[in-house]
Specification:
about 300 residues, alpha+beta, four-stranded antiparallel beta sheet, 2 helices, about 15% helix
Length: about 300
């Protein structure tokens, strides 16, 4: 009876693996048609078909207008998180209704924040850059479920105002990529020995606000078209809309893929792309394997 039960379990496992394989293939084929998310003030925009389709969702917090969301990232499970411009409060965002719910992460503080996630064993880690007035940028690794600080480094960057507006973690390894908002350079941060992020190269573009994301082995950058005015210390947002494209993580060069002509309004800009389908499928497979070990 035990042997028959084992055989049945193996057959079920094989069917699940085959189904995940189909998901991986479908996800790879659909990678050219990504869904991009970006924020302006208290509104969430969802765009697909390289900007042809744009849906606007009004975000809310406890039934009232949401605060300005200036940073976005999906965790590996497909949950969208947003960070506020003022105080660096983090929320989960319902991508259908726009409703915000609080998280266990204490307010990050600072003038601007950008963040991404890493699965480190069984721990979901939140990787954050926080920039303070004057251009000092700190970096922290926190437990995304409890908010506990795992590692922290003050002043990984200084004198670069408005600091790090965009970052992305590739999903594995010890390198996190970040873009500085003064010289528009791509930088690499070594997560195993945190210090000043190394300059890789210039993006070749300017922006007033930006956000980064990682999908299917590729770094993406979304920007609000404009530039940072070093004389006045103000963002020149312009009226030209938004630009989206890929970043070469070897050279730093930006390649534009599409634009959205939606007229910018309000403050804050966050950007995210749904995680690679392969990542979600592999997480599911890992869960199945863990469940088998428990049995």
């Amino acid at each position: 009876a035990w042997a028959r039960a084992q055989c049945k379990e193996e057959r079920e496992m094989n069917r699940v693996i085959a189904a995940i394989g189909l998901v991986l293939v479908a996800g790879s084929a659909a990678s050219a048609q990504l869904t991009h998310y970006f924020t302006q003030g208290d509104r969430l925009f969802v765009t697909s078909n390289n900007g042809v389709t744009v849906t606007q969702i009004n975000m809310t917090l406890n039934g009232s207008t949401a605060p300005t969301i200036s940073s976005l990232a999906f965790d590996p499970m497909g949950n969208l998180w947003g960070g506020t411009t003022a105080g660096g409060n983090l929320y989960r965002i319902n991508t259908t209704t726009g409703a915000l719910t609080s998280t266990a992460i204490p307010a990050l503080g600072g003038q601007t924040n950008t963040f991404d996630f890493r699965m480190n064993g069984s721990v979901l880690e939140l990787l954050t850059f926080t920039t303070f007035t004057g251009g000092r940028t700190d970096f922290q690794i926190r437990n995304a479920n409890t908010g506990a600080v795992i590692s922290a480094a003050t002043t990984v960057l200084t004198g670069v105002n408005p600091g790090i507006p965009a970052s992305a973690y590739p999903g594995s390894g010890n390198t996190m990529y970040a873009l500085d908002g003064l010289s528009y350079n791509l930088r690499a941060l070594n997560l195993s020995a945190i210090s000043t992020p190394t300059v890789i190269g210039n993006t070749g573009i300017t922006w007033s606000q930006a956000g980064g994301a990682w999908h299917n082995g590729q770094m993406w950058l979304g920007t609000r078209i404009g530039a940072y005015n070093t004389s006045t210390g103000q963002q020149n947002h312009g009226t030209s809309g938004f630009r989206f494209g890929t970043i070469n993580t070897t050279t730093g060069a930006f390649t534009q893929v599409f634009t959205v002509s939606e007229r910018p309004f309000g403050g804050g800009f966050g950007y995210a792309v749904i995680p690679t389908p392969a990542s979600a499928a592999l997480l599911g497979l890992a869960g199945i394997a863990a469940a088998r070990r428990r049995r």
